[in-house]
Design brief:
about 0% strand; about 150 residues; 2 helices
């Protein structure tokens, strides 16, 4: 039995040791490959994080620019609306002034027509100086009151 053991050790030990060494080398290579893959994964994850961070920064920049553009657009719209409002107000005021002037011209014409009418009545009818003065005074008072009333309405 000892001899069988010796023979086994002498002839079988080298191939067994060689198989064990090869197995050990294969395991070591597998561990190295796993270690390299782990390093690559970590490197890729770091690059992915950098890319994500850059994308987030760009998205924030785009959002900020969009907000600024929107705010500028709103401000321009407000300015345009204010400008149009001022133009409409100026046109309305000019129209009111024109209508007021036209009303004054019509009032003057009516006062002149009234004066002509009074003068023609006076000529047709002889009045004593007191009645004539009273008639002129009341006509002028009515004309002035009419002008004041028209000016107050504008």
């Amino acid at each position: 039995m000892l001899r069988a053991l010796f023979l086994l050790w002498r002839y079988a030990s080298k191939p067994i040791v060689k198989i064990l060494d090869e197995r050990q080398e294969h395991v070591r290579e597998g561990l190295e490959a796993a270690s390299k893959m782990q390093a690559q994964l970590e490197s890729t994850a770091a690059r992915n994080e950098e890319v994500l961070a850059e994308a987030r920064r760009e998205a924030q920049s785009i959002l900020a620019q969009s907000r600024e553009s929107g705010d500028a657009l709103v401000e321009r719209a407000r300015e345009e609306a204010a400008k149009q409002s001022d133009e409409y107000m100026a046109r309305a005021q000019a129209s009111i002034r024109a209508e007021t002037e036209q009303a004054r011209q019509e009032l003057r014409k009516e006062a002149a027509d009234l004066s002509v009418l009074i003068a023609s009545r006076i000529v047709r009818k002889e009045l004593d100086p007191a009645t004539q003065a009273s008639l002129i005074e009341s006509t002028l008072s009515e004309a002035i009151a009419g002008q004041s009333g028209a000016a107050d309405k504008s």
